[in-house]
Structure formats: structure tokens, C-alpha cells
Specification:
Family: Belongs to the GST superfamily. Sigma family.
Oligomer: single chain
EC number: 2.5.1.18
Strand order of the largest sheet: 2-1-3-4
GO molecular function: glutathione peroxidase activity; glutathione transferase activity
GO biological process, one term: glutathione metabolic process
Structural class: alpha+beta
CATH class of the largest domain: Mainly Alpha
Number of domains: 2
Catalytic activity: RX + glutathione = an S-substituted glutathione + a halide anion + H(+)
Order of helices and strands: EHEHEEHHHHHH
CATH topology of the largest domain: Glutathione S-transferase Yfyf (Class Pi), Chain A, domain 2
Number of strands: 4
CATH architecture of the largest domain: Up-down Bundle
């Protein structure tokens, strides 16, 4: 039996889609959450000087989306054929376009710059991206998922991104009032066996 060890910070962030994939697949793993104090020593041993990393069978995979894609392919959350797999990749790539804008807000040099960047991000970058996903889901027939009528890693990455966007640093908790179809995806992901238990236990911490 493969013994997986995920190393990441003691927060959700880039590690959470990986944890949710393990939960959905009902695969046990070591959730190695590290502190900032231990990072300088660990950083030198990281393949790219970053986390998360996934270790198993003497092997190491770095980069969060690479880890997600590996697990999704291994445990059947990457579509049923090359076309569906490509659509999963497409949707995840579209979501990563949001990350640059989010970093620009967090790392702004002062409050005025932060407010300007945030307003532009919310009105242009975020609304444009989420609007496309809302339209996509509106066109789906009898499905609460993005690809092939079943849960994929793209759904999980989307839901984790929505969680981040709902924080006060970005759009706030009322975000999904504007996107009812995205709210439907989140409900479906949260109710998925394994993920439901993971989210419930996470909220108790």
C-alpha cells in the first residue's frame, strides 16, 4: 500500500485541493503541517524551494497543481478520456489567472495601492473569470459539476478558490450571491462522500 505524506503549511491555501482529493478518493495520507520556524531548514531540502510536496515510495512530487493532477489521474478525478482531461486542465488554468491579481493585493506597498488593485481585480479579473464559469454551469444539463457530470479535480480547485475569494481580503462572504450556479458546484463538492466529512472536521478545528 502506498504511504503518502503531504508537507504544507498549517493552513488551507495550495494544500487544500490536495487534501480534498485524498478525501474524495478515500485514501489515507500523512498531513504534515509545518511552522514558519521550521521552514528555513526544510526549504533547502525542497526540490524548488517551495511547498507543498508529496512524498511516497521514495519519490517526491512538487508544485501544487502537478500533485493535484497526479492524484486526479490516479484516482479517476481527471475525466474519462483525453478530451475531458483537457477540459479539466483548461478550467484549472483559467483559475490560476486569478492568482497574480490576488498576490498583487496582498503584497501591495500601501493601503491606497491595495485598494486600487482590489477594486480592479474584483470588477475586471475576478468578475470576468467567475462570470465565464457561471455561464458554463448555466449551460450544463442535469449536472452540478464542470466536466462529464461527475466530480473532477477542476471542481475541487474551483471550490477552494471560491473559499479564498470569500475572505475579507477579496470579495467577502456574499460573493456567491451573484453566482448561484457556482454555489451549486460548491454544495455538490461539499456533499461528496469523503469531502463532506473532511470539511466538517476542518470546521471543528
Amino acid at each position: 500500500m502506498v504511504g503518502y505524506k503531504l508537507t504544507y503549511w498549517d493552513l488551507e491555501g495550495r494544500g487544500e485541493p490536495i487534501r480534498m482529493l485524498f478525501a474524495a478518493a478515500n485514501v489515507k495520507f500523512i498531513d504534515n503541517r509545518i511552522s514558519k520556524e521550521s521552514w528555513p531548514e526544510l526549504k533547502e531540502r525542497m526540490p524548488w524551494g517551495q511547498i507543498p510536496i508529496l512524498e511516497f515510495d521514495g519519490k517526491v512530487i512538487a508544485q501544487s497543481l502537478t500533485i493535484c493532477r497526479y492524484l486526479a489521474q490516479k484516482y479517476n478525478f481527471a475525466g474519462r478520456d483525453p478530451w475531458e482531461s483537457a477540459k479539466c486542465d483548461e478550467y484549472v488554468d483559467a483559475l490560476t489567472d486569478l492568482v497574480g491579481g490576488m498576490k498583487g493585493i496582498v503584497h501591495a506597498e500601501n493601503d491606497q495601492v491595495r485598494a486600487t488593485r482590489k477594486a480592479k481585480f474584483l470588477q475586471e479579473t475576478m468578475s470576468g473569470c467567475l462570470g465565464k464559469f457561471e455561464e458554463l454551469m448555466a449551460s450544463q444539463v442535469d449536472s452540478s459539476f464542470l466536466v462529464g457530470g461527475k466530480l473532477s479535480w477542476a471542481d475541487i480547485v474551483l471550490v477552494v478558490m471560491l473559499e479564498r475569494l470569500e475572505t475579507p481580503s477579496y470579495a467577502g462572504p456574499s460573493l456567491l450571491d451573484t453566482y448561484p450556479n457556482l454555489k451549486m458546484i460548491r454544495i455538490a463538492v461539499y456533499n461528496y462522500p469523503g469531502i463532506q466529512e473532511w470539511v466538517e472536521n476542518r470546521r471543528k478545528k
